[in-house]
Structures are given as structure tokens and as C-alpha cells.
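Known limitations

Files may contain more than one protein. Parsers should not assume a single record per file. Below, a two-record file is shown to illustrate correct handling: read the sequence, read the C-alpha cell line, then continue until end of file.
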Amino acid sequence: MDNALLFDARARVLADLSARGQATAAAVSALEDAVSARKWWAEQWPEGEVYVAGLVAQDVQDALFESSGRWPVCSICEEGPVHTLYIQPDLGGPDPVWVCEDTGEPVAALGRL
């Protein structure tokens, strides 16, 4: 397992957490847990390394939903109810992008919110 991929995944998700004001102790802890779990996952399936960053983002998103609510919330749509962005492609890679839940339009690459 190339640790550089894990560091990159961590940095990208942390950048998005920070961009949306969500880099709390609980969120960073969830991020660390996700990176650790995905390290094991990638060691078991080396061909899956390209998916690690997007999967880490999805893991953090799921953890935050359970503890503090939706993240990241779409800031592009001005009308309608509050909704989230999600990672595309579903498996999280190889080039993960945040996509609007309502419109399906790409909003930003992972790490660029």
C-alpha cells in the first residue's frame, strides 16, 4: 500500500471539511478512522488503491451524518430544500467528484470545495 495515497486522501477530505467549516475534532477523528480502515481495505485489494480517496470521503460523510448531520451541503442550488453533495463515481474513483444530489451536476473535485 502506497502511504502517499492515504496522505493525499486525508489531505483532500480535510480540505473539504475545512472549506465548509466542519473540521471539528469529531470530524477529524472520523477522518482518521476512515483512513485507517481504508488502509486495511487497500492492502487486501491493491487494485483498489485508486478508489481510496473517494471512499474515505464517503466514510467521513456517513460518520458525520450519524453524529452531526449532512455534509457537505450543496451551496450551488438556491431553491428547494437543503440537500447534500455526494461522491461520484459510486465506488469513489479514480477521479472522485462532489455531485449535487438534486441536479446530478458536478460541483467540485474532491479536495476543492
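...continuing to the second record:
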Amino acid sequence: MEHGEKHITVVDEHGNEQLCEVLFTFESEDFGKSYVFYYPVGAEFDDEEETEIHVSAFVPGEGDQEGELQPIETEEEWDMIEEVWNTFCAEQEEEEE
């Protein structure tokens, strides 16, 4: 998993662009995809306040092209993502103790 200061621009269904901060990324061998957890810039990620976290499949771009975010399509993917998220949250709590 990658952690760090990265930003992506997300375009919503209305064509509005929003700058988002990448929380972390991971790859799933089972699905042959990369996934990215992200949230809008300006919303602080902490446990006290409910921050809306988004997750998408990520297809890297070729050469200089930017990658592309894709929706999660299957129940199996959502189950796997939920497991990864729960593990991430548990690790965050351990680090704070």
C-alpha cells in the first residue's frame, strides 16, 4: 500500500472537477486492478469527524497520459474493498496507541 501526499482531480457526473487527496492505494491480484481511496481536499481525515471517503478502481495511463478512475462494479469487489478498509482503520488505531 502507498501512503503519501498525492492529489487527483475527480470529475463528477455533472462535469464538475474536484481536487481530491489520495488516502492510499492498493492492488488486488484477485481482480487484476488497482484501487484508490480518496477524499476531497479541504476535508480533514480524522476519526472525530465523519469524512466522506471515496474508492474507485484505477487504470494507469500510458506514457504521459493520466490514469482513469472507474466505478466498482461487483459485490465481490466491494466485499474485498471493505476488508481492506477495515484493516487500514485497525492499523491507524494501533499507530495512535
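Parsers that stop after the first record will miss the second one. For reference, the second record is described as follows. The mean pLDDT is 84.
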